[in-house]
User: Which sequence fits this backbone?
């Protein structure tokens, strides 16, 4: 009986590590990565308090097809729009700014999204110019179709 329990526990924990996740890159690495291997960029803007953001992280951004497409054809950045960090991007420094008593937003999130609606998917071309902004929960299949529209490849079905 104990062997069965041990096998089940090991299978469970090792199985969790096999969950698909997009390979992330940081803003500090993005410019050199795009210069050496040009690809479009997907930026997932989210906050800790946003339930739809959490749902996207658990469902859409763990979907096998979406993860495969992101990892193959895009650079991916997951960015908490309320994180207190200074980021240097394209020669400019960005930091978290207070908007009111309890409200705050990172300057880079504001510049990229031009909004404070979450979740937000920001799509950049190989020149790091905004191609498209999408402000709402995106289901896995819809995300895959969106990624295919931005960067079609012969392997997409």
Assistant:
């Amino acid at each position: 009986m104990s062997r069965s329990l041990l096998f089940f526990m090991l299978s469970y924990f090792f199985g969790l590590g096999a969950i698909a996740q997009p390979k992330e890159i940081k803003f500090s690495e993005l410019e050199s990565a795009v210069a050496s291997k040009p690809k479009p960029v997907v930026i997932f803007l989210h906050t800790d308090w946003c339930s739809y953001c959490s749902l996207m992280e658990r469902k859409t951004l763990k979907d096998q097809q979406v993860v495969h497409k992101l990892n193959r054809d895009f650079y991916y950045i997951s960015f908490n729009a309320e994180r207190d960090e200074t980021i240097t991007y394209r020669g400019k420094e960005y930091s978290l700014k207070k908007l009111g008593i309890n409200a705050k937003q990172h300057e880079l999130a504001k510049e990229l999204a031009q909004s404070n609606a979450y979740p937000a998917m920001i799509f950049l071309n190989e020149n790091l110019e905004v191609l498209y902004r999408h402000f709402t929960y995106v289901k896995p299949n819809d995300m895959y179709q969106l990624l295919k529209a931005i960067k079609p490849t012969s392997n997409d079905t």
Q: What stands out?
A: Helices lie at 2-17, 27-36, 51-58, 64-73, 107-113, 140-150.
